[in-house]
Amino acid sequence: MTNYRSDIDGLRALSIAPVMLFHAGYAFMPGGFVGVDTFFVLSGYLITSLIGREIEDSVFSFRHFYMRRIRRLLPALICVYAAVLGFSWIYDTQQNFYSAAEQIFASIFYVSNVYYLFNIDYFTGESLDFILLHTWSLSIEEQFYLIFPVAIWLAYKVSKSCAQALLITATIASFVFSAYLSLSAKQDGEYYHSFSRFWELGIGGCVALFRLQITRWITPIRLMALTVIVAAPFLIQPEYAFPFPSAIPSVLATVCLIIAWDGGKDMISRSLSLPLIVYIGKISYSLYIWHWVIFVAANKMGLFRDEALPLVFLVTILVSITSYHIVEKPFRYGRSNLRSNKAVLSYLGLASVAFILTPYAYTLALGRTVPLNPQNAYEKIMALNAAGFRESGELARSYRGGECFLEPSTPQTFAADCYTIAANQPNIALIGDSNAAHYSAGFRHRFPDAKILQLSGSNCMITIPGVLTRDMDGCRESNRLFFEKILPSDEIDLYIFSSRWSPSLIANGAFEKFLVSLKDNGIADKSVIIGRQAYFSHGVANQAVYSLRSMSAADWQPEELNLKLNEVIQIAESEADQLPQIDRELSRLAAKYGVSYVSALGIQQHPDGIEFISPQGDLLYWDSGHLTTEGAIYRVGQILADSEVREIVDKADVGNIRD
């Protein structure tokens, strides 16, 4: 059995703190997520130490190993699942309740990371819509421990050297794969990918299996390693390639703290072994599994803001302490009848049945609470309670998704109608990323006599030939079709360019080179560039549904709802400071080359802060920044009200303009 080391619990405390601060959105801790990497190394070390010693002592049992893992993880986690379902049933939208149920099943079967790989980018504001997002790391650990014990046990049948060679080989292979994914422009899910993370657990395992230990220069080595552990969350940025190479400092520092050891006599060990720090380390698992759930619930309720964060943290700590002492400890260390395999498996079986039946009970209890065919603005917003903008099929209709707007999940070729120029009607080209696609319904509505050509792809900002802002086949196709078919044509009457223009495109000159190409091709005077708009801290549709529940369907006012939304939703913190400067620079460059410019940031403004609801009561955004169909029609109307734009449109002679 591995001897207990209190400094490892202290190290857990230093790892959970930055994770929580990062998830709370504190700007001074941009790299707090690296705490998870320390957990991975520690987990690999401790579990491999246990397995290796038991195999060598001929007492290893798969049944005992997996029952220990179950007692360690699942009792408290099941309480989290129950709390998630309870909160979602009482407060959340129907759509999010079913999403929570899906996330629970993904977590139960240890495939959370795969689920989120296809559903969410870890660093987007939309992460707060996924109430069990943090379980991705637990799934990776358990996937590792489904494979690892069997492989090591079989290798030990040959020899210990064989087991060591196997673990080293697997760790190196995972490390190389992680480097490939992290440094690839494709950004193919490296953050959540199991095999791109196994090397971190494997390194901890190698330390255990080789029983590495340093007994000289203990204090300097541990001091440097601790400095890296403490500094990394302040220095690592979300945009850095991750986990390779940005996780390497934290991983190696954790290894050094493990192997530089002389019995805990050094200053660093004594510091990490202070009672309060050790206690935080002991409850770190409870803190981890509860904090994100409470943060997301607070966010949905409009309480996840600076002035309320101390209270949210206090609730998190109190719930975690309670969970540790009432649930986690009894199942691990309590009475033998509670820790028995029969008791634990019965508890898990009953809980699993409850989780399976709860969504069905929810469906029977609520049925459909909104009209199938909403007729007014109130009903249209409340309809999003049951089916989201994307899930209802409205995104495909409004954005021309899968045909003229391509995402990683769609086919990577454009329908011919998206770029085929009409011979007998005006042609308007709408080009860009999702911030172009979300205007599509608006331009099609406002210009009924024109053909709207559309080439748009997720994160595919148009710049110059061959320069891509995302390594996606759809982006390549959009770039090629624009420069080979659309731009050379004399039949295009009006060009509309819209994107989430990034500061890097301005800094590296790509945006200006794009403007030069418009001027050189003689189309600057019939081009309109729509600037970068703000993105938000919350999904707008969800918050609108929550707010409307407290308003009368007969007496609610758009102005009142807009005010309520502005009380909860702010411009995303990562964008708030830089947006005005980006807007001014885009405008300056456009004017320099004679291209008309519309400030999307400007037309979003409202006396309340941001205009989320139109004067007619229509919801303008469905997620954290993309327009609904009604929002597109409304915003395009605002764009056309700009005198400079209207002059270009009138000159283009693109037919009737519908009000």
By DSSP (H or I, 4+ residues per run), the number of helices equals 30
Write down how many β-strands occur, each being a DSSP E stretch of 2 or more residues: 8
Q: Report how far the terminal alpha carbons are from each other.
A: 77 Å
Order of strands in the sheet with the most strands? Answer: 1-3-2-4-5-6
Give the domain tally. Answer: 2
- Strand residue content: under 5%
Low-confidence stretches: none
| Biggest β-sheet strands, sense, barrel | 6 strands, parallel
Radius of gyration: 28 Å
Structural class: mainly alpha
The backbone outline, from C-alpha atoms, is globular
Helix proportion of residues, in percent? Answer: 55-70%
Mean of residue pLDDT?
89
Based on the model shown, name its key terms.
single chain; 659 residues; mainly alpha; Rossmann fold; 2 domains; six-stranded parallel β-sheet; two-stranded antiparallel sheet; 30 helices; 8 strands; globular; Acyltransferase family protein; transmembrane helix
Structure description:
This protein is mainly alpha-helical and 659 residues long. The chain has 2 domains: 6-361, no CATH class; 395-536 and 572-604 and 629-652, SGNH hydrolase (Rossmann fold). It has 30 helices and 8 strands. A 6-stranded parallel beta sheet has the order 1-3-2-4-5-6, sandwiched between helices. Strands 7-8 form a two-stranded antiparallel sheet. Strand 7 (605-606) and strand 8 form a beta hairpin. Helix 1 runs parallel beside helix 13 and helix 2 (35-56) packs across helix 8 (198-209). It is globular. Residues 7-321 form the Acyltransferase domain. Keywords: Acyltransferase, Membrane, Transferase, Transmembrane, Transmembrane helix. InterPro entries: Acyl_transf_3_dom, Acyltransferase_3, SGNH.
